[in-house]
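This entry is listed below:
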Amino acid sequence: MRALSGWGARLSAMLNENRGGPWGPSGDGGDGDGKGPRSPWGQPPRRRRPAGSPSNIASFEDFLKKSRDRFGGRLPPADGRPYWLYGLGVFLLLWLVFTSFHQVGAQEKGVVTLFGAYSRTVGPGINLTLPAPIERMQKVDVGQVRKTDVGNSAHDDNLVLTEDQNLIDLAYSVRWKIRDPQLYLFSLDNPENTISEVAKSAMRAVVANVRFNDAVGAGRDDIASRVALAMQQILDRYGAGVHIEGVTIIQTDPPAEVLEAFKKVTAAQQDAQSDINNARAYAQQITARAQGDAAAFNQIYAQYKLAPDVTRRRLYYETMERVLSKVDKTVVEAPGVTPYLPLPEARKRAQPQEGATR
């Protein structure tokens, strides 16, 4: 009963509101006399502004606040379409631009994958792909020379056994470049670690056939070239897509426990080698001088055989010149003056005088 009475009250209210025809109740703005239905072409009645209300909106913030309140806290749709559709369109456009156009540098190559699988490799320039996540591009710098250090850390002792059963602590660096980006990205899980382990293996294999003195001395360059060649062969078998530029040996020392003793032995060996080199240099100098004197004597002897008297006199003059050039006395021969008195003549003259006095 209460439900029926409620529906009856609602129906009577609707009839009262539509009283006077389809254009609203009578007396609500008719055609001229205020009676009868309201004309649909006339202007709607204006509501009077209550007294004390502001004539305009105080600020733009108030306008926005009132607009939001009027539409339930949301801005009205534009042209009948919600604003989120425009935002979605802008997002899709930016997504297509940033995931489909790729700039590849001069020393780079781009590896394109289709749903995670390798598709192709592109060169430098602007390249177009399908938008992500359909296709993705990974740029790889193939012109950069990378370096991997082995044994340079203070806690990383890279001890290697030589051919003569001696241990040597090696520190070296490997220079390498990416040759094939596809193989580099998809064949190796950790390229840096793989190259380091391959370098250690190749170094052990090469040093095992080299004696200790050669490893710490003049044989270092030969060891480095052989290690680089062995590394390239191993990495090619792995399909790593890497090119080994070279190997540089930085340190070749014995283990730390015997380093001081090794330094003393090395210093003694250097001193011994220095003494040997000095003796050899002196021997070569004396030998060269003797060979020169012998050659000069042979020349003089050949001249002596041709003219003995002339050669003998010439030798006498040259000898006297060489001897007297070092004497600071000058001998002047005057007529009738004997510059010196030979001892045998003086004794002969002295003997007759002694006999006469007796």
User: Anything to note?
Assistant: The first strand starts at residue 101 and ends at 104. The longest helix spans residues 259-306.
